[in-house]
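=== RUN LOG ===
request id: a7f3
mode: sequence -> structure
chains: 1
length: 234
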Amino acid sequence: MIGLSPGRDFTYIYECIFGSRKDPQPEHAVARRTKEDALITRNNLLDAAEKLFQLNGVSGTSLHDIAREAGATRGAVYWHFKDKADLFNAMMERVTLPLEQAFKNPADDSHTNPLSRIRHALGVAFAQIANDPHTRRVFEVATQKVEYVDELQAVRARHLKVRNEFIQQMEDGLRDAASAQELVVSIPFEHAARGLHALADGLIQNWLLDTAAFELTASGRELTRVYLSGLGFK
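=== RESULT ===
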């Protein structure tokens, strides 16, 4: 900081980022209002980024574009986010994408069977994409509007981390399901998990290209059933 009192520091930061206030206020009120305004500005920047990323792609959208769309300054962008990748990942964290969430919630009493948990988790993921416009928009940006150029390597790292965690969770679920049914699966569980991930991820991305082509939730559940049956599950 610059050696001012805490309240004056807040006032200084506020004036640098948001412009000076004409109405003098007590320092504690300025500090509280600064935090509230900063949160509003941060959310406005994320909303603007989400909109522009979908329209123009991530590489085709600059931080200046986002600041202008949000009605904010470049200083506000760099106060909240280190760079475009940091902003992108913050946008992603506002929405829990279906394939990230699929196995994170503890199973309820009606889905204690390992195979039932897999079917239920994927069914919920398909339904969330189909029925929640915000989730669908962010998923579209994350899978179809981003190029992994140098400035977005942190985004690629996050994508790989989420994918690998999902595949590991799926592998563990398939192994538990096979044990419960005393089933010998003819391929390694890792390969079976990657196949199921490819089915779910590919189906969602194809549906996003043309949402009128087929009904995602029903098709996803039926194809999941067929895939698991092909592995020998009952």
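=== NOTES ===
The chain has a mean pLDDT of 83.
The radius of gyration is 23 Å.
=== END ===
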